[in-house]
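It would be a great kindness if you could assist me with a short task in structural biology. The full record is reproduced below for your convenience:
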Amino acid sequence: MSNTGRGQARLILWSALLTGLCLGATLSFPFWYGLSLFYAPALIRKQLSGYLSPDTTPDLWLPGVVVGGVAWGIALGWLSGIRPLWRLGVAGGVGVLVAEYIALSSPLINLDRALWPGAPNHIRWAMDLTFGLGIGGGATALAVGLAIRPGFAALWLAFGVTLAAALPAWIIHMGLDALGIRWGAGNANMAKVVGLAFPAATLSAGALIGWYIARFGPQHRS
């Protein structure tokens, strides 16, 4: 492999890791924290709740993800040499904010319910998760892609990231479902599914964004 090829591979790998760290971790933190409390002994659970009550994590969740989006954008800018750093920082924060609205409030998120109205509840929840991650990931990727290289290519990036985020989430959900870890069955199953789906989706999406940066970043512009 040439030096250029190795450099692109490193960029893709680091982009995937940064996306998983900044976005996957902030998205999944409340669910992993909830799982920790669920399985911890009573004394440890009481101590942890004294530091951070599980009742407050929903209020911190979405603002925390936006902060993670800003940090992610700045890290991508530093990694790729795109300057000024605030440009990708703003794009990451705005992209995540728009993605949150789409995934939680937009009528698009209910498209799956209109298409498959008779699906069982746990399958409908899987489709909600998949659609939310896919559409939200695509919106975030569009904002970052336009900040890197305004043009039609950013639309292709958004479409690719939609699939790259949605497919791992669907595979994880259905795989765990086949093992009996099913939403609505108790035992903190929702947190288990989401706690794995978010990191997997962001790692996959981050790798594709890394390829986009390697292809259209400043070091490859004519």
Observations:
- The CA atoms of residues 100 and 136 lie 7 Å apart.
